[in-house]
Amino acid sequence: MSATQRTGAATRRTGPPFWMAVPALAFFGLFALVPLIGVVVLSFMSWDGLGTPAWAGLDSWRATLADPVTRQAMWLTAVFVVGSFLIQAPVSLLLGVFMAGRHRYRALLSVLYFLPLLFSSAAIGITFKALLDPNFGLSRAFGTQLLARNWLGSPDLALYTVMFVVGWAFIPFHSLLYQAGVRQIPAALYEAATLDGAGRVKQFFYVTLPQLRYTIVTSSTLMLVGSLTYFDLVFVLTAGGPGNATRILPLDMYLRGFRSYEMGQASAIAVILVAVGLTLSLVLNRVSGAGRMESQQAGL
Amino acid sequence: MRVRQTRQVPNVLGGVAGWLWLAVIIVPIYYIVLTSLRPQSAYYTENPLTWPGEPTLDAYRLVLENNFLLYLANSVIVTVVSVALILAVSLMASYYLVRSATRLSRGTLRLVLLGIAIPIQATIIPVYYLIVQLGLYDRLVALILPSVAFAIPISVLIIVNFVRDIPGELFESMRVDGAGDWRMLLTLVLPLARPALVTVGIYDALNVWNGFLFPLILTQSSEVRVLPLSLWTYQGQFSVNVPAVLAAVTLSAVPVLAAYIVGRRQLVSGLTAGFGK
């Protein structure tokens, strides 16, 4: 903090008054903090979304945790989070490195790679629903039966299809992060590596990857916590179906709360999401925080 | 004996993968535009990746006749008002947090930063309860209030990091000249923090603009419908008219595309705001 030195004769107040922060705190307190506390309270209530919430103790928690639908939702969420990460992280990293290179086509390619970011989640969901239609979608363009599967309508395929579409929507953003990260790596490191006779692959593993470790942590945190609580695109694509094949936890929460009017149970699921999300963020921050103090310019 | 290479061997593998990814990106977008120009009857007969035999703008006409401009206006209102509020309150808060070295301000900063990790989705039920209790359900203001609240933590973080770099001497010399807090905020902090405000503004605008969950839960009538939600309702309305649905998708991307053309650099930096090192 760049405060004035505390000398004996220092004026009592050097800075602006507290009320400057009051508007922001009022918004944040009322519509973010209070709901955060509220969701914990509501998880011990029974409420149909219309009447008055009534105290219910642990009933909602018991009902939710015993429900096979929620148990399946937890499993699906784990698969979705890990699967999305395994799809997005390597592709984004390689794309970012590729985009950061100097090449005739790369400037143009980078612009084109950016295009999915122009569309909202709802737009992307609706597009892929039409595109993956087994009768009138993309499969007809190539005239093969190979593509004519019911990608979103079959319980075995739907979750993987959703992962692919979510990847399509988010990889452009993460590759931008990686591109920015690669551009900050000092050229001297590559020059030194080249003089030492390191080829392209070696340079990638011994220069690029270690230098990108903070970008990797940031991007991974966003991917993991993001896919844990991700709702929009999955809701538009499948609404949790077919059956409950893509009913990940945020959808389970929505359907339980706003379709089955079990707000207490939905709140219990929300508490689980907050807890897991916060834990993930903190753990990843710890992991990276240990290294944050080290110099970025290691080896220079 | 190593021969010195003036040019590296071309990265064939990287090049092939790069073009392959381009196909993955471009085909769906090409499909959206092409299908939106296809007559509804041809949608069931023509190959989806060929230029339509008789391209038509009927789908666009249909979407525009079905309140598209109203939904666009609602989106613009919600986004502009939200972003203006976010920037105003976040700038004031950042000025206080940076220039006031009290225990209160440090605690406040910690509390606000905690908010970055709160997932919006998980608090939607209490937010819904609150909005209903306040009698604001199904009004545009119901979308603005929580949108502002959830954007404040990241916005404050980015602006604080910027305001921190303003030399303390500037504040002191203004203080000596008798400037009050307001004048310092408006004539010193505001102009110097402008780059941060632009970045934060774009980042928040994109988030509010694309937001789907708040409109889904907090509004219902078509008078207050915003674009992302309207795409979803169009899908129900024009269920068999896929060209019309995709025309709506195309139109919904036009404002962001325009922003991209006007300020590509700012848009990209705004997109990745706060996630750099």
UniProtKB/TrEMBL annotation, chain A:
Organism, scientific name: Georgenia soli
Localisation per UniProt entry: Cell membrane
InterPro entries in UniProt: ABC_transporter_permease, MetI-like, MetI-like_sf
Transmembrane annotation, as ranges: 21-45, 73-99, 111-132, 157-178, 222-243, 263-284
Record-level GO BP terms: transmembrane transport
Coarse class of the protein's main subcellular location: membrane
Record-linked SUPFAM superfamilies: MetI-like
Stored Gene3D superfamilies: MetI-like
Protein name per the record: Raffinose/stachyose/melibiose transport system permease protein
Gene Ontology cellular-component terms listed: plasma membrane
UniProt membrane topology term: Multi-pass membrane protein
A matching Pfam family: BPD_transp_1
Keywords from the UniProt entry: Cell membrane, Membrane, Transmembrane, Transmembrane helix, Transport
Family, similarity comment: Belongs to the binding-protein-dependent transport system permease family.
Domain ABC transmembrane type-1 positions: 74-284
Family matches, as CDD domains: TM_PBP2
Taxonomic lineage from the root: Bacteria, Bacillati, Actinomycetota, Actinomycetes, Micrococcales
TrEMBL record, chain B:
Biological processes per GO annotation: transmembrane transport
Residue ranges constituting the ABC transmembrane type-1 domain according to the UniProt record: 72-263
Membrane topology: Multi-pass membrane protein
PANTHER family: ABC TRANSPORTER PERMEASE PROTEIN MG189-RELATED, ABC TRANSPORTER PERMEASE PROTEIN MG189-RELATED-RELATED
Name of protein: Carbohydrate ABC transporter membrane protein 2 (CUT1 family)
Pfam families documented for this protein: BPD_transp_1
Transmembrane segments: 12-33, 68-97, 109-131, 143-163, 184-203, 238-262
Family: Belongs to the binding-protein-dependent transport system permease family.
GO cellular component terms given for this protein: plasma membrane
InterPro entries according to UniProt: MetI-like (IPR000515), MetI-like_sf (IPR035906)
Keyword Coiled coil: no
SUPFAM superfamilies, alphabetized: MetI-like (SSF161098)
Gene3D superfamilies: MetI-like
Keywords, ordered alphabetically: Cell membrane, Membrane, Transmembrane, Transmembrane helix, Transport
Main location: membrane
Subcellular location: Cell membrane
